[in-house]
Amino acid sequence: MSAAEKPNLPSPLPADIDARKAATSAWHESLRDRICAAFEAIEDEAGDVHAARIGPLAAGRFVRTPWRRPSPDGAEAGGGVTAMMKGRVFEKVGVNVSAVHGRFAPEFAKAIPGADADPRFWASGISLVAHPQSPRVPAVHMNTRFIVTQKAWFGGGSDLTPSLPDAVDSATFHAALKAACDRFDPSWHPRFKAWCDDYFYLPHRKEARGVGGIFFDWLDTGDRDRDAAFARAVGEAFLGVYPGIVRRHFREGWSDDDRRRQLVRRGRYAEFNLLYDRGTQFGLKTDGNVEAILMSLPPLAAWP
Amino acid sequence: MSAAEKPNLPSPLPADIDARKAATSAWHESLRDRICAAFEAIEDEAGDVHAARIGPLAAGRFVRTPWRRPSPDGAEAGGGVTAMMKGRVFEKVGVNVSAVHGRFAPEFAKAIPGADADPRFWASGISLVAHPQSPRVPAVHMNTRFIVTQKAWFGGGSDLTPSLPDAVDSATFHAALKAACDRFDPSWHPRFKAWCDDYFYLPHRKEARGVGGIFFDWLDTGDRDRDAAFARAVGEAFLGVYPGIVRRHFREGWSDDDRRRQLVRRGRYAEFNLLYDRGTQFGLKTDGNVEAILMSLPPLAAWP
């Protein structure tokens, strides 16, 4: 299934959809809290080993900023919280949670399952992009989301973007996501890994954004508990694997040439997010919070 | 007329269309030569006044790289020449000329005047984006183009993007473009200036890309000599005014905060070009040269 196709999702909305919405949003917030704590612990551990290169920076701390989504008619439309840290390991990392609702614009509704006849939607998600200071520490993205129209489905994934590819990091990252998938369905990892490679691809450059991971959308197997558990497993797999990849490299030095490669790779990251990313398009078309949507953009990027 | 509308152009193709194509392409090349010479002269004049900040750089020189447009069936499809300079006044400046031809993809053809029934096109243009080292020197864009389907029209414009807006620079720039317009039609400058403000606008930021200039498209007044002369006048106005604006500021010092503002402004520039710019979309959809199309992206940009 490619990103361009709109599937016919099988299941009707369950009677307990409101409880499922609330549980999913609460889980996004709790995952955010644990990720922020884990990343702040890395900032503490790192010390000022790279002070000569990046200056004597204090351990970073997340700053949380709540936002409300403006509604054309002044009605409640949801909102979210951005959490942003600028630290000595993480040059810029944003973790957003949001739960928004409203009506899709007619043009947009046509492409969304369950929104043809009734454009109302509810969506909750957690979205993370980390741009490390060190070119030896890979950048990463993770997102899971639950979207409810007259249908309901989960989507998400995680992918790794090293500036200096490292076979052990890639293998470790893919293995963690495979383990999460395999507990649910052994066919999912090959399918969602291929979908990720297909999605995070820059056709104009004929190049991948990074080394991939998994990407999935429109997940509605008919067992809503299991689908929700899978989305949680993806978040847990990310939290289980990425901090170790950071710790593997965060004391290594780097060269000016390594930094130049990183800034170019980040330029490609910005190209992907602005030219192609569906989450960015979704956010900008649904009057999302611009600072939250574009928090994924790199702190510094080069097109030399 | 907004950018979204597709006009009905009045004039049939003239019998001498091939001669007009050749003359326009030749003029694009000659303007490119004069602009490159003017910018290299500025590089020579600047000396190493900013060596303490940017390093002891030699005067920049343009490097020209010809490219051929790949054609699906191996037939001739045109090409162009990128001219790129990385200097001590111009951190990155690209001047592209191209003359390409082929067939629009069906989806794209529908939106193009004169291409509904016959998707063949020919297009020649000159396109320039300059990102100066100094935040006190404004960035600038200039483009003129001649497009031929079963209709033919000119388009183009020029706009100024200061990091630190300066009223004299803005007034000087707008006055030069107004003078160029007024020699043809006194209604054009207000119309093309408003079109520029409308076009170079980031709706998601609710902010302008810069201080504007002029933008025009689908110019077909029925007098093809006059239309071509106007496109040339826009190029001449740019060459007449921008070097003076550079010279007004190129010896001034700047602060770290000035540089930070410049890098953020450049991030917005990248957002505009990747999210909205019609020339970028046109290029990527017609298999243009990626390096040429994205040469407009800033050498370094920040999303802090």
Radius of gyration of chain A: 19 Å
- What's the helix-strand series of chain A? HHEEEHEEEHHEEEHHHHE
What would you give as the CATH superfamily of chain A?
A: Coproporphyrinogen III oxidase, aerobic
Average pLDDT confidence of chain A is 93
Describe this structure in words.
In chain A, helix 1 (17-46) packs parallel to helix 6 (224-249) and helix 4 (167-182) packs antiparallel against helix 6. The radius of gyration of chain A is 19 Å and the shape is globular. With 304 residues, chain A is α+β, with helices and mostly antiparallel strands. In chain A, the strands form two sheets. In chain A, strands 1-2-3-4-5-6-9 form a seven-stranded antiparallel β-sheet. In chain A, strand 4 and strand 5 form a beta hairpin. Chain A has a single domain (12-296), classed as oxygen-dependent coproporphyrinogen oxidase (3-Layer(aba) Sandwich), CATH 3.40.1500.10. Helices cover 41% and strands 25% of the residues of chain A. The first copy, chain A, contains nine helices and ten strands. Chain A binds chain B through residues 86, 92, 204-205, 263, 267, 270-271, 274-275, 284, 290, 293-294, 297-304, and chain B through 86, 92, 204-205, 263, 267, 270-271, 274-275, 284, 290, 293-294, 297-304.
